[in-house]
Amino acid sequence: MISRLASRITWILWILLVIALPITTFPVVMKLTGSSSVAPASLLFLLPLVVILLPIVIFNKTRFPVHVKAVLVFFLFALATIAMAFLRPIPDYKSVSPLSAALEGTATLVLGLLFYLVSILLPNTPGRIEKTLRIVNWVGLVVILVSIIQVTAWVFSLPFFYFLERVRPFFSPTRILRERMLGFAAEPSWLAHMLNLVYLSYWLAAAYTRKSVHRFRIWKFTFEDVLLVLGIVTLVGSLSRGGLLAFMLLLGFIFVLLNLRLIRWIIKKFSDRRKVLMTAGVSIGLLFVYIGLLVLALWGFSKIDPRMKDVFQFSTDQPNPLIEYADNLQFGERVIYWQTGWNIFNDHPITGVGVGLSGFYFPQYLPDKGFELAETREFLYHSTGLMNIKNLWSRLLAETGIVGFGLYVNFLVLFAFTSSEMIKKSNGMRRTLGFMGIFMLVALIAEEFSVDSFALPYLWFTMGLVTAAWRWYYPVEGKFSG
After folding, report:
1. Lowest mean pLDDT among 53-62, 77-86, 370-379
2. Would you call 39 helix, strand, or coil by DSSP?
């Protein structure tokens, strides 16, 4: 009786967690945690979920997939880097306490791990996985509609726009932007981040495999097909350059998959001589098509985003042409932060300076060009908080060294192998979720150049859900859990 009640409660909390995913900076969570930026609403349901779920997991001696061993090694090492950081002198930075920064770094790591574990344990049957995906679809639809309405209301209905402005403080501390879509996220890049890593990754996978968790159709199109089109519109409307780059990378990967299909068809269809000519001709032709599409996309984006108007103007006459080019496109500060992370890594290459502590080293390792940029000077001289690297790859190197970076990549590679296994050896929704995992990893390559937080749940949610499908979708596959 108690077990069934606990199972029901945890499932309800899981549903609420999935519904709350799009809210990245919830005022209630901000007050409870003291965080001014990353405060996901889903945290309200994660912690009670863990409290109830942990005794059940221990009592039932639940076996975890092999992925959990790999991710635990990374997280334990990342926590160890925080402890090791205090074995060396930490530079002073205004009135910021290294201990409070270390505690915040510890909290973000623990939250990331908990999001991942819960995403594996709760959708633990095919039925629950598919129900989770249905909720993801309906929540994604709400995010899309809210995002589109926010922008169009400014043009078509000012009273309604002002109503949305009054409502928004209940969901986020930031204001609605008139030109860029936000949804429930605190900033457009976070909207693009969640779209790429959760919603678009699944919708693309469902469209590619022609599978759906819904029975109804709109002519020949599934619900996921419609959501995919609307999701792309929303992604473009966010004007997030990192998000759009990630999606272009994802589309490029899908084009490669389709090309491989075409080449395999050519190999079967034609004789040896014609086979070679056709394959070479098609490959070269498609390469030019991709380059043309990329140039066309950049040109189109330069027309709708003022920040990109100089995208085709690159000069080698400057002392540091790459930094100057990035500054002209209004992301010079981001490149400077990435370079700072790399400079810190160069001096602390093995274990880094500790998760959450790289901000103390910024004044020492900031490139000279950084002191000329307005945003950087604002953070250095007028802000009381620590500066961020704003790039997970650079942050991993700076804060956990080559060892931590290697452990993280090892986990991603393991996830890629098992996702590929699901694609090659499965069918139906299990194969679709394998593609979801691969698509998420491709988008992640570009996405993590603009996001550096472990506490944002989107990466861990998708990886956990796909891992759950690998572990739980067929009962016989428990033997692979290791």
Report:
1. 370-379
2. strand
The CA distance from 39 to 44, in Å, is 10
Distances (CA, A) of 324 to 62, 106, 107, 327, 340: 54, 36, 37, 5, 16
What's the mean pLDDT in 215-229? 90
Q: DSSP labels for 363-378?
A: HHH--GGGGGSHHHHH
DSSP reduced 3-state for 274 = helix
- Mean pLDDT over 415-426 rounds to 90
Torsion, Cα of 268, 271, 276, 282 (10° steps) = -60
Q: What pLDDT band is residue 480 in, cutting at 50, 70 and 90?
A: very low
Provide the 10 A C-beta neighbour count for residue 296.
Answer: 10
| Mean pLDDT rounded to a whole number for the chain | 83
CA distance 282 to 276: 10
Sequential DSSP letters for 128-184: HHHHHHHHHHHHHHHHHHHHHHHHHHHHH-HHHHHHHHHHGGGT-SSPPPSSS--TT
Give the number of other CB atoms < 10 A from CB of residue 279: 16
Distance between CA 173 and CA 170 in Å, rounded? 8
Q: What is the pLDDT of residue 298?
A: 64
Query: For residue 134, what are its two tokens?
Result: 């249905």
Query: Which amino acid does the sequence have at 29?
Result: V
Whole-number Å distance between alpha carbons of 195 and 176: 18
Q: Is 218 helix (H, G, I), strand (E, B) or coil?
A: strand
